[in-house]
Sequence to fold (296 residues):
Amino acid sequence: MLLKGVVILDDNNWRSFPAKNSAKSLDSYLEGREFSHDRYCHYTSLEALEKIIESHSLLIFCVDGFNDVKDSAQYGDNEKQKKYFALCLSTGINENLPLWYLYSGLNGKGGSISFTKNQIKKVIDNAKFSLVEENDSGFVDFQNLEENKDFHIMFKDLVYADEKEGRVSLKYNTQTNYIFSTDEWKIYRESNIGFVKGLIWYYEKETRLQICLEDHILSKMDLSKKYAVRMSIPENDFMKAKVTLGPEITDATISSDIAAYSNLKAFVWKTSAMGLSKYAGTIEMNLCGKCKKGFK
Fold:
């Protein structure tokens, strides 16, 4: 199973990233670090959060829908991309302001669901996976999936790169590497498809759960339709999650902001594991209004 043999890290070694100069040494450095972060956070809208809580599941979407075109392209052509599905989790104990507005909604009134490092191990180990197909009513069951028979999983931290004029600069955690050769980077990139991105995306601090379907599953799919992989989480694991509301939801507005979301409200009553953003009431982006006015 995915989590067997997790490496125990020497905390004194994390600063050695700038000295890594080969694909092999970088692979060794990153091994096990995907489980070293304090918290793993998925930012989303309140509508999506309501469905997540109702179903105790997360939808993992195909990489062909990424907002980073180069990220999608690393998987190959359009048909090859159809095999891959990815769930992007932002790591760390602090809230990520750009992700609040990029993925939770321009009005700052979305939400996030997060797990600790111990919880995320259990979530991945204990989850059941199925392929779902989109129709007019949403995503419906298409086929149950068995790990190592129908698909395989990778869970790994991303490395961010700036490639230009025959050189490459790498960024990971708070460290930067300026000595990695372009030849070694090509080897690393080609053996870690889905786990490298351009430096402009560094703010995401992403750990990615990646699903790759086997060809016999792909052959059953109508590639003109949209699919996702549903990760169903056992209730005991799911109910340990933490839900945080976006920074423009405040004490004064919370009742009206979540009034329409019965499952979200029930989750609060059952677990008390929901809270306002640390920055609630201190941020007023007004991005929707600025869009209408042309950002003047």
User: Anything to note?
Assistant: Confidence is low (pLDDT under 50) at residues 4-12.
